[in-house]
Write a structure and sequence with these properties.
Number of helices: 5
Helix content: 25-40%
Distance between the termini: 56 Å
Oligomer: single chain
Number of strands: 12
Length: 191
């Protein structure tokens, strides 16, 4: 039964993350998700390949806000991607991000080569950050309604941009929210 299951998964490119047969599509998924995390509610914890992390660290040095990626602890977690075998994490890291204009840290596990995946954001991350997800309207936001910039990858994952600097649009939205809050306070309206 396990062999049959592996054969079925091997025929479905979107479900097989670590397969030599689909390495080209996974390489493009990795490239497509530079500086972003893909929502993946099947992950037990947020995880990425060492390749994605090294690229993120390089980007942080060039465009970051001064916060640095830090290794926190040795990890005992083991991951399985698609029909592949178990892969042990090389460690748990904290990475600085700026999502929808808000600074935060994400705790991630990192898996070694030959795995080539972008950052897969777990359901624990979404719950911990209290991010509201509405796949029907493709709207992703913070509890106060502030929108979070997303895009859909070619393999179908919704991806959240993890910029450490805000875009002009995010900066303008933050200023507008602040002005609305000041106006509401002056009127005595609850925020």
């Amino acid at each position: 039964l396990q062999d049959l299951h592996a054969q079925i998964l091997a025929t479905i490119p979107d479900m097989t993350l670590n397969s030599g047969a689909y390495d080209g599509s996974m390489a493009s998924f990795l490239e497509e998700c530079k500086g972003a995390g893909a929502l993946d509610s099947c992950c037990s914890s947020s995880v990425c390949s060492i390749e994605w992390l090294l690229d993120y660290i390089r980007e942080q040095r060039l465009n970051g806000d001064g916060r640095k990626v830090t290794k926190t602890v040795y990890s005992e977690r083991v991951f399985t991607f698609g029909a592949g075998g178990p892969i042990k994490s090389v460690g748990t890291y904290l990475i600085p991000v700026q999502i929808g204009g808000r600074k935060a840290w994400i705790k991630i596990d990192v898996v070694p080569k030959p795995v080539r995946i972008p950052l897969l954001l777990s359901i624990k991350f979404l719950e911990g950050a209290k991010i509201r997800v509405d796949h029907g309207t493709r709207r992703y936001s913070w509890p106060d309604g502030a929108r979070i910039s997303t895009f859909k990858s070619r393999v179908g994952h919704v991806c959240i941009r993890l910029r450490t600097k805000m875009t002009e649009e995010e900066e303008n939205e933050k200023k507008k929210r602040w002005k609305d809050q000041v106006r509401a306070r002056k009127k005595g309206t609850p925020i």
